[in-house]
Design goal:
homodimer; alpha+beta; BirA Bifunctional Protein, domain 2; Rossmann fold; 3 domains; 9-stranded mixed beta sheet; 5-stranded mixed beta sheet; 21% strand
Chain lengths: 448, 448
């Protein structure tokens, strides 16, 4: 067979070489650690799922055009999950009765979308999901925002680099219904245009408004919603606001969340923005989007919000939740923009690995014993089994960045001793086996 | 919508509730840690792959009948990978030129097979893969066997509970060709029958032999191969063994590996068995299978071996490797058989989590501050935002198994102090904020 197959993965998907895996693990470990600090528990679900539960909660376009579907098996149509939320709902519906509320869960599922790959968007990707369910107070909102702030600041990100813009869909409802008197059936159109406004030219946005709404006051109102980041300034545009508006759940929630944020230590990272509404229909209350504040392109990294109707396709139980799904590719792009990943992350770190240089094959049994002593103490070691000359082995160890090499020859084996070499100072001495761990710790503590 | 969807995942696949995830993470973390102690680097590849690379290396049955196939996208047929080895080959072929040998890689890929689910076998599963490539000496074999022993003994497994049975395909070749004088084209049949012998009744095995081979000496020879676990005993069956046999690569390799094992500290876990040959065609030298030695059912948990032709469909480079893939479900069954998993593993461990009981909503800003202090020190905490009466909150903390509760009311907030309660001794005292971390560490160290 002389024709060779391609060495590349399929379109839109990435191999994870060890260098990529180190970046992935670094990011994932940090996020998981923070989720655990907030007492969230990890879960996951199969990658393949019955297509119906996605059809019931997600757009038809996403399910039938932008997904990978498995050829029919046993009469079922299976989908490679494009998001995990319907599975979260399925699992929570199953165990909800026996669980204390609130339920705090996180996951880093692998997800699939059949769409054109682009910067930050692949056909296979990880999305870190955090959700709190069964906690109706706005402290759930605050906790979710605190987690996001901790996620990003733990990498060293600052409030100049990212902002969480928050809003409330019930508040937008109240503006539309009470202040702008928009007919009910037109409100979803307002959400749709606000969600897409970021990606539109100003003129396109204008044209869309004029084509869709007759009332000049509605058009002006939508433009203000899009552009205002200050609640008082927004409301100053309206004369004679009725008390019904101030008493509305949306206004009350927004005011209270704003106060909670001010009282917490995350206020510098959070701003109100009446233009943030989120595209997905299932959000009902608080919504938010996290933006990269970079000069050249302010862009959304990810977002989330509160949903009230999560379990309905699986259960009659009503449960409200709030959460987000953060694509790891977008996060990585953000971190790289601000140099927030350690420089040598891709490279393997051999500085704490012990290299064992062997002078003759006959010492192998003794080397096995020594390597066992090291690994029992959770110390990694690499054995050179080629029994080449010592100079070669030491220069190999040096190239890797090893700090400590053990040199084992027939003399060492006979005397049950070990020659240990500090690769930085180039000092070496011969020690008893029993001293090995202590000597290693001593050299490493001096070097770090 | 009143009809509800099923709360179960699709057939043959499992949800990972937090209790399942804790078991998975416990096992996976231990295996990864050991792989890292041997300086293996982690990799992964997409779950979807072009079907051709599996067709080229795997059986037609596995690819076309026992796999999940994605509906055609852009003219390509995609498969949900049933194993990772062809992807390992693809990735190694791509970077081999620039990498120092040997290449030590590990992965815990999620894999898919469309077959009848049964004990230890699911349609979606994890399989821990460890491979060393580009090291032709038998020290590679020894290292792989050492890793397996460490994997299992790290959970507490003993040599009464598992054994690694090893053999060498070149050695079996030499027996067949030189001692039994089996015609070349019949040798693959011998491999096939030896591999299936375990699952056959004695009489069925006999009948198959008589139907397939005419020579009584061949039939007797195959029966000895199947049943013998001692090299000398096996060879004692043959008269006048020619020196050609003793000089064969297969015999030499087997003798040398046996000696290396004897010289190492894993000899009690390893036994020769001439009946172990492995089913897959791509093994060329050493092969091994790990057996659960349980009285009622000695059964293979997993296996592996050396392959010489791994890269051929991607590259002209020749590289030999040895490795194994261990299904995590079978491993978990083995560990459960011998009670080798910690008893409370499924339950969340709240013993090191600080519970913050809050007496009034007005203290929220102070509570935010304190929870930040804790998390900055990598201490997990859970805040009760319901502001119910203290007794309720303390009994909730007790139910969870919390050791330390902080009680925060308006008095504490005003004085910038904290009431800390040891839930075991029931002692409580009010301390300064600055003392918090030290007091927590003191209580925890007393309790552990």
């Amino acid at each position: 067979m002389s024709k060779k197959f391609s060495r590349n993965p399929i379109k839109g998907m990435d191999d994870y070489f060890p260098s990529d895996m180190r970046v992935f693990n670094y990011i994932n470990d940090k996020l998981r650690n923070i989720a655990e600090l907030y007492c969230y528990e990890e879960y996951d679900a199969p990658i393949l799922e019955a297509i119906e539960i996605f059809e019931a909660k997600t757009s038809d376009e996403l399910v039938n055009e932008q997904s990978f579907i498995v050829e029919k098996k046993e009469g079922e149509r299976l989908i490679l999950r494009p998001e995990i939320t319907p599975q979260l709902a399925r699992m929570v519906a199953k165990i909800s009765q026996e669980k204390k509320k609130p339920i705090r869960w996180y996951s880093n599922p692998r997800l699939y979308r059949y769409e054109q790959p682009q910067r930050g968007r692949k056909r296979e990707f990880y999305q870190f999901n955090v959700d709190i369910l069964g906690e109706d107070t706005l402290y759930a909102e605050l906790e979710i925002l605190q987690i996001i702030v901790d996620f990003l600041t733990d990498f060293g990100a600052t409030s100049d680099q990212f902002q969480i813009y928050f809003n409330n869909r019930r508040f937008v409802d109240a503006i539309c219904e009470i202040l702008l008197e928009v007919p009910k059936q037109k409100i979803s159109q307002i959400y749709s245009i606000l969600d897409k406004a970021d990606k539109m030219e100003e003129s396109e946005f204008e044209k869309y408004l004029i084509d869709s709404f007759e009332s000049e006051s509605i058009i002006q109102g939508i433009k203000k919603l899009k552009d205002t980041n200050d609640l008082d300034e927004l409301l100053a545009n309206f004369d004679d606001i009725p008390s019904e508006f101030y008493e509305s759940k949306g206004y009350q929630e927004l005011k209270k969340l704003t106060r909670l944020i001010e009282d917490s230590e995350i206020s510098e990272y959070c701003s109100f923005s009446s233009g943030v509404v989120r595209g997905l229909d299932y959000y009902t209350g608080t919504v938010f989007e996290v933006y990269d504040m970079g000069d050249e392109n302010i862009r959304a990294i990810f977002g989330g919000g509160r949903y009230d109707d999560l379990l309905s396709i699986f259960s009659d139980e009503e449960m409200s939740g709030i959460g987000f799904g953060m694509g790891l590719l977008m996060l990585e792009l953000f971190l790289r923009t601000y140099n927030l990943l350690p420089e040598d992350l891709e490279e393997p770190d051999y500085s704490k690995i012990i290299y064992i240089a062997t002078l003759d094959e006959e010492v192998a049994p003794y080397v096995f014993k020594i390597s066992n002593i090291l690994r029992d103490q959770n110390i990694s070691c690499l054995i050179d089994y080629r029994f080449e000359n010592l100079g070669n082995q030491l220069s190999k160890a040096n190239d890797l960045g090893v700090m400590i090499t053990l040199i084992i020859g027939p003399k060492e084996m006979k005397e049950k001793r070990i020659t240990i070499k500090n690769m930085v100072s180039e000092e070496q001495k011969t020690i008893e086996t029993e001293e090995l761990i202590q000597q290693i710790n001593q050299i490493l503590s001096k070097l770090s």
